[in-house]
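Most newcomers find our protein records easier to grasp once they have seen one. To make this concrete, we reproduce a full record directly below:

===
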Amino acid sequence: MRFEIVTIFPGFFAGIFENGILRRALAEELVTVGLHDLRVFTHDRHRTVDDRPFGGGEGMVLKAEPLAEALASLGIGPKAVSEKCQGTTSVVPPMPQNDAGALAPEGEPLAQRPTVILLSAQGQRFTQAVARELSRIDRVVLICGRYEGVDERINQLYCDMELSIGDYVLSGGELAAAVVMDATMRLIPGVLGNEASGEFESFGVTDAEITSDTQGVPRSQHGAGGLLDYPHYTRPAEFGGLRAPEVLMNGDHHEIRRWRRKQQLRKTLANRPDLLEGAALSAEDRLLLESIKQEEC
């Protein structure tokens, strides 16, 4: 998988790629990343990437032309043009072509059009389900918004998706791009040390979708099925006057599994009750949920 990041602050990502899972994914070439400085695609002395908004208002808006040129350098044209492999008008920068005349980056064969994503507070919410979808795509382009936003024509002409990582406003899309990459990369086979880690966690898949079971070994976890994860404990068994739940130390996988499922439901009910509406709940889950509600009355 490859990520292309279009940003006015490419240096922002240096530390992010030098640590943790992202570093390992890059070192093992499971993922590659291209950083593209938007100012390279300007043509004035001041390398201007923004301008005042039409209609007035606060702040500045990222200009369409540099972004269109940056995307063209990656072999990406307006969606209608890319789909039909036609030439572009004088308004939109022309894209490099291969020997056959098809649109493609220089030195690369023609491939399926990448998924282009605009990171914006106006976008749909980024979720684990979206991360799972992106992890199956070969090439993703992330456009990091700045200032008051991006000229909407870039969104209309080039972008397949507009994403927001939460109901708050950041100073730019770079942090959002890092979040999207981290959440997506860890779902790519081989990136995590334990493949099951991407299945048994908050917002994870249902039991029916679990692929990492070891045959003959009783499983002490449920697939989250859209719920939050259960609480975790490790040594020492007692800390700060609190003891880890005995059920986790008795070796009974069935009881551990049932306890963990109940805690998943309890956590979700307390912190994200909205998730219960779309979660994959069994008849037993619903009985557990009712017992939790009664306990808390």
Q: What stands out?
A: The helical segments are 20-27, 64-73, 79-84, 128-134, 152-158, 174-185, 253-271, 283-295. Residues 226 and 279 are 5 Å apart (CA to CA). The longest strand covers residues 115-125. Residues 203-295 form a domain with the Trp Operon Repressor; Chain A fold (CATH 1.10.1270.20).
